[in-house]
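Structure ticket #2291
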Amino acid sequence: MSDEPHFLETLYKELALALGDAVWAFARIEWVTYTCLRRLSKDHLDELVGGLNFRDRTTILRRLVDARKLTPQQKDRAHAAIKAAEDLSEKRNIIVHNPWQIWVDLDSEQLMMQIEKYSRREKTVDLEKLREFTKLAGQVEAELKESIYAL
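Resolution: structure written out below.
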């Protein structure tokens, strides 16, 4: 018997870390939406909407932006940042909420490194796309903060 780890034991780390980074990156966006709601409301709105889903919170955030007296540029920038976060949530859903599988082809001893939306198999996310998602999420988070905090 060999002391070398079986190939199944060596395959998970890179993809697992990328998944964790992607989930964490979007969780930061989720947190920013609460922070933005708190900043734009005097009624502890962030606490009141704690049980609502992401899209409902961004709808409320958009309405709070619309209720303020802002320049068209300020409003457009905030709306664009909110929309970017909503668009990214669609990709997040494939990564986090839908059934996905990481599988190993035992015949070829290869890890099939992608996440697959079960009902739409053409919607896949591989390791590179996970990393791109994480990078984009950081940019969306920064723009959401900057555009709303400036109001």
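Closing remark: Strands lie at 103-105, 110-112, 114-116, 124-126.
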